[in-house]
Automatic annotation (TrEMBL):
InterPro entries: ARM-like, ARM-type_fold, Armadillo, HEAT_type_2. Keywords: Repeat. ARM repeats lie at residues 111-144, 154-196, 388-430, 713-755. It comes from Salix purpurea. HEAT repeats lie at residues 155-193. The lineage of its organism: Eukaryota, Viridiplantae, Streptophyta, Embryophyta, Tracheophyta. Pfam families: Arm. This is ARM REPEAT SUPERFAMILY PROTEIN.
Length: 782
């Protein structure tokens, strides 16, 4: 930090120039001797004041003072003085000396940091003293070793508290120290735990005139360093700041908005003109954009924020004032180092969308990546939608740069987590470019995963059913209704939710083309378990109608399903899965197998498919999977598929896989006993143990097990249980009910037991089991 000339306090009655000229270098030794502990306190005070003022003359003066050993120790001792003037002068001298690199270690070794810590705990410090001691720490914190020493639980809370001080210079110094501390990576954890992020973020979110540029600069530098960590970046974004790449002024020159363009909303709708004609230089249009929050505008708040942010950023770009305060480095350095800044969310969202409209490819790519990283909550995802990011990102899918396409897909995939944004993405026509990309045999695995994930989320019928139930706030965010649904009656037919309007059916025709279906079926044989899972989910959503089943059969979907079920040596998994695969691989196998089981279950509803498959082969494979050690929750779907096959084809001889005696005992003794325990248990614990054990039996796919549960009145008991049982009991009960729902003969009992309202209650309350309840509800003829 540069040495600053500070005027002498009035009590000293001498200005700096007079003092510097009143004694030469030869008098330095005299004043150093006057610092001795055996001297009168007043003499010591006058000496330290004189030396502080002398040190402001520059490095040569500081070198003269440092010739005398013990000077630093005596100065540190004076920090304990009861005199504010002496404390200020001692801290000021330490500040001057520590501004010279070679003397920082000497200052630290003298115990200055410890004395400053004690001094900060005083309640009666004047702003002048606080400024000097914090500036001394500011200089010392430049050194990495000393930075680690300063970032301790004793000093950090005091620094953070100083950010709230009324004196501007004190706040600037505290922010400067914290900014320097963030330059040392090992300090980050303790600083975040001390609560530094919210305090610094407040400076960047406040109006420019309320805080000095120094504070804002140091706060931004500190938060930028912390944001380089993925988890801390999320904390920064949650405070309302968005990371925006610094690309330099040059790329913005390609932005040529019309001077006479009238502001419009991101969805393309026009704002009613209130003036007879446009102004010559577009001033009236700009002012309209900046004042769109007028109460008479009759716009949603999100749309107002979008147009205000866009107007501000376009004005900065057109006037050449964009990024002026952020950096002076050339564009090549900015791109090479991937530097970024932090902006309040309204400005940050608008800036990122603006960059998407530029011509510089690297800038576009970095903006799309930033949108993906910033889309951490519903508020920001909706803000990007309102700002027009969706349309720009979809247009980039046709770009000739693979890097830009990858970044755009990643951003759309993150934005689609929001149900409302996902609807907008589909309405903007994203399916056509996505299917075109899927046909590319040279697509990278990473691109393929993101593309499939986005497509699966768009086609997921659960998204539409969920929007049918939510019209109010859930978890703090507004769940928007599906605009294309057209049926607001929550008691209406569940299956009607999946009858898409003709316009949406036309949008999805690209997915139903034979070459796309064939490509998806071929992807079922891909070695990546994640890709297998996503493809199986997509085919479950689209390949279950009479118009598509012929294409899936022609594409040999049976071989694709067998590839997933046979992807590992199941006999090895049965013996010791842990010794063969890592835990995460076992989890991925379970996910892929369960997705394939759901797809097979759906396909079995179609007669054309049932006539073409070898049901006995699938039954044997699924029984092997049930006996493997993949996680139990994934066996639920496998067991449900077996129940479906059994109800359609009848019992298949698989005695080589089952013990007939054990099966008889289970069917006629164990299951009835568990049903009775569920009915008569006095404690939730006993009831939970019984239903969990019953779920384990059903999940093993034993022939006639589900029929026994239904005949014993288990459906009524389980429906009652999901309304008031423990979390584990509800999870197990839903799993059993899902298996029972595979047999259409049980549907009447489901309706009589009141399963539909109970399931809707789980879905609307968004309990942890809502997805399983949603799948079960889809199987019922409500």
């Amino acid at each position: 930090m540069a040495v600053e000339v500070v005027p002498l306090m009035p009590v000293h009655k001498k200005n700096i120039e007079e003092t510097k000229g009143s004694f030469g270098d030869s008098y330095v030794a005299l004043f150093v001797r006057m610092l001795g502990l055996d001297n009168d306190p007043l003499d010591r005070e006058q000496a330290i004041v004189a030396l502080w003022q002398y040190s402001l003359g520059g490095k040569k003066c500081i070198d003269n003072i440092m010739q005398f050993q013990g000077c630093i120790n005596l100065t540190v001792n004076l920090l304990q003085s009861e005199s504010s003037s002496a404390c200020e002068a001692a801290a000021g001298l330490l500040r001057s000396i520590s501004s010279v690199n070679v003397y920082r270690d000497v200052v630290a070794e003298s115990g200055a940091i410890e004395e400053i810590t004690g001094l900060l705990n005083r309640l009666s410090l004047t702003p002048e003293v606080m400024e000097q001691i914090l500036c001394a720490l500011w200089n010392l914190s430049v050194d990495e070793k000393l930075s680690v020493k300063i970032a301790n639980p004793d000093i950090l809370p005091l620094l953070i508290k100083s950010l709230e001080d009324e004196d501007l210079r004190v706040k600037e110094a505290a922010a400067g120290v914290l900014a320097n501390l963030t330059l040392t990576h090992s300090n980050h954890t303790i600083m975040v735990e001390a609560g530094v992020i919210p305090k610094l973020a407040n400076f960047l979110k406040s109006a420019v005139e309320e805080e000095s540029k120094v504070i804002r600069k140091e706060a931004r530098n500190a938060l930028v360093e912390l944001s380089k960590n993925e988890y801390y970046r999320i904390l920064v974004i949650e405070e309302g700041l968005v990371p925006v790449p610094l690309i330099g002024i040059a790329p913005y020159r390609s932005l040529t908005p019309s001077l006479h363009s009238w502001p419009s909303l991101p969805d393309g709708s026009k704002i009613e003109r209130t003036s007879k004609g446009p102004s010559r230089f577009g001033a009236s249009e700009l002012l309209l954009g900046l004042n769109i929050d007028d109460k008479n505008a009759n716009l949603e708040e999100a749309k107002m924020n979008a147009i205000i942010g866009r107007s501000k950023q376009q004005f900065l770009a057109r006037s050449g004032a964009i990024e002026v305060e952020d950096t002076k480095l050339p564009q090549s350095e900015l791109s090479k180092n991937k530097q970024f800044t932090l902006l309040p969310w309204m400005d940050g969202v608008a800036r990122l969308v603006l960059i998407l409209e530029l011509e510089d490819e690297l800038s576009i790519c970095r903006a799309a990546e930033s949108i993906a990283r910033a889309s951490i909550n519903e508020h920001l995802r909706n803000s990007f939608k309102e700002a027009g990011a969706v349309k720009n990102l979809i247009q980039l899918l046709d770009h000739n740069s693979d890097a830009i396409i990858f970044a755009a897909v990643g951003a759309l995939e993150r934005l689609s987590i929001s149900n409302a944004v996902c609807q907008t993405i589909e309405a903007e026509g994203v399916i056509a470019p996505l299917t075109k990309m899927l046909k590319n045999l040279e697509m990278s695995e990473g691109m393929m995963e993101k593309t499939l994930n986005l497509l699966a989320r768009i086609l997921d019928p659960n998204r539409k059913m969920k929007s049918k139930f939510y019209g109010g706030p859930v978890n703090g965010f507004k769940k928007e209704l599906d605009a294309a649904r057209g049926d607001d009656d929550p008691t209406g037919s569940t299956r009607k939710v999946y009858e898409m309007p003709k316009s949406k059916q036309n949008i999805r025709q690209d997915v139903l083309a034979f070459d796309v279906v064939a490509r998806l079926v071929d992807m079922l044989k891909h070695p990546s378990l994640e890709i297998q899972r996503k493809v199986a989910s997509i085919l479950e959503f689209v390949a279950t109608s009479d118009s598509v089943i012929d294409k899936t059969i022609s594409a040999d979907i049976e071989s694709g399903l067998l590839a997933i079920f046979q992807q590992v040596e199941l006999n090895e998994l049965e013996s010791d899965v842990e010794s063969q695969l890592l835990a995460i691989q076992v989890e991925e196998v379970g996910l892929a197998v369960s997705a394939a089981s759901r797809l097979l279950t759906k396909l079995l509803d179609l007669e054309q498919f049932r006539r073409t498959i070898n049901s006995a082969h699938f039954t044997k494979l699924l029984h092997k999977i049930l006996k493997s050690n993949i996680p139990l929750q994934y066996k639920d779907w496998v067991a449900a598929c077996l129940v479906k096959i059994d109800s359609l084809y009848g019992p298949i001889s698989i005695l080589e896989f089952e013990n007939p005696i054990n099966m008889e005992v289970t069917l006629y003794e164990k299951i009835p006993r568990l049903i009775e325990q569920i009915r008569s248990a006095f404690s939730l614990e006993a009831q939970e143990a019984a239903v969990v054990e019953l779920n384990r039996i059903i999940s093993e796919g034993m022939v006639d097990a589900t029929r026994t549960v239904a005949s014993e009145g288990g459906i009524f008991l389980l429906v009652k249980l999901i309304e008031g049982g423990s979390e584990n009991a509800v999870e197990a009960a839903l799993s059993i009910l899902y298996n029972l729902s595979m047999d259409s003969e049980n549907h009447a009992a489901f309706i009589a037991a009141g399963a539909v309202p109970a399931l809707r209650k789980i879905i609307m309350s968004e309990r942890s089991q809502w997805k399983r309840a949603l799948r079960l509800l889809r199987n019922l003829p409500t």
